[in-house]
Design brief:
mainly alpha, three-stranded mixed sheet, about 75% helix, globular, transducer, Olfact_rcpt
Length: about 325
């Protein structure tokens, strides 16, 4: 009973993360993650800038891509700066409110990104299978509605998952075996039987991850059928190229998120969780802009124009 009373007044959590690592390992990880974070911010920032300012990139694909990069910036900023601080300071504690906020933001942005990726697959399907009606079907109004839907579902779903994660008081300690407040790890510390909350998170993950996945699979199945029905191999190659970048991003995000939220907890452990948490919190947001820009001539051209303009402006100011 005393334990329960204490547990209900937990005011902070300790993120164990890389606490066991040696100082030299932590220094190496700090340098690595700082470089990855800087690269991800620069690349996504550049994509946001050019998709919102370059008139040549006015198609729905780039409208969605700009929003995807914005979500990526939000996602990595929710977890990585805190992890970098914890790699250099001794105190790894975070307040209860900060932990709740971080969990909510990870869910909100993660869910919005999953839904947005499904809409991007639908956009590719309309562009390839219904090119003549593309402008009409994917009008600006429709694109704004689709992006708003992704944000709205992220917002609502985040509230539900937040409630499930923090609905019980905490009495199993306050040490989180990860570098951020990840829901399944937080729930495991709550009083009573955490299985109901974990089942709810699992059920939600099935809906949130598999529903967009179904839309993505259907879109690409139809795209594949359409491509294979065409005679010209050069046309096929170009179409495959535009779809490959999106599929690569989808595979990275979904596999890591599925491992983290759709696995029975008995198979989890800090050694297994951390690599997958790192994959979807930093590697995927960093890879998204690289994958999209390197596989796309229009994006490369826009980046060169943007960088050319900034260097020209600098030269004039000098």
């Amino acid at each position: 009973p005393a334990d329960l009373r204490n547990g209900s007044t937990v005011t902070e959590f300790v993120l164990v993360g890389f606490e066991q690592s040696s100082p030299s390992t932590r220094a190496l990880l700090f340098a690595l993650f700082l470089a990855l974070y800087s690269l991800a911010m620069a690349m996504n920032g550049l994509i946001i800038f050019i998709t919102w300012t370059d008139p040549r990139l006015s198609s729905p694909m780039y409208f969605f891509l700009g929003h995807l990069s914005f979500l990526d910036v939000c996602f990595i900023t929710t977890t990585i700066p805190q992890m970098l601080i914890h790699l250099v300071v001794k105190n790894h504690s975070v307040s209860f409110v900060a932990c709740m906020t971080q969990t909510y933001l990870v869910f909100f942005v993660g869910v919005a990104e999953c839904i947005l990726l499904a809409f991007m697959a639908y956009d590719r399907y309309v562009a390839i299978c219904h090119p003549l009606n593309y402008a009409q079907i994917m009008s600006r109004q429709v694109c704004v509605r689709l992006v708003s839907t992704a944000w709205f579902f992220g917002l609502i779903n985040g509230l539900f998952l937040e409630y499930m994660s923090f609905r019980n008081p905490f009495c199993r300690g306050h040490h989180i075996e990860n570098f951020f407040c990840e829901a399944p790890v937080v729930i495991a510390l709550s009083c009573g039987d955490p299985r109901f909350s974990l089942k709810m998170v699992f059920a939600d993950a099935i809906v949130v991850l598999l529903s967009p996945m179904v839309l993505i699979v259907i879109s690409y199945a139809r795209i594949l059928t359409s491509i294979l029905g065409r005679a010209s191999s050069s046309g096929r190659g170009k179409t495959f190229s535009t779809c490959a970048s999106h599929l690569t991003v989808v595979t990275c995000l979904y596999t890591s998120a599925m491992f983290s939220y759709m696995n029975p907890r008995s198979t989890h452990g800090p050694d297994k969780d951390k690599p997958f948490s790192l994959l979807y919190t930093i590697i995927t947001p960093m890879c998204n802009p690289i994958i999209y820009s390197f596989r796309n001539k229009e994006m490369k051209g826009a980046m060169v124009r943007a960088l050319g303009r900034s260097s020209l402006a600098q030269a004039r100011s000098v």
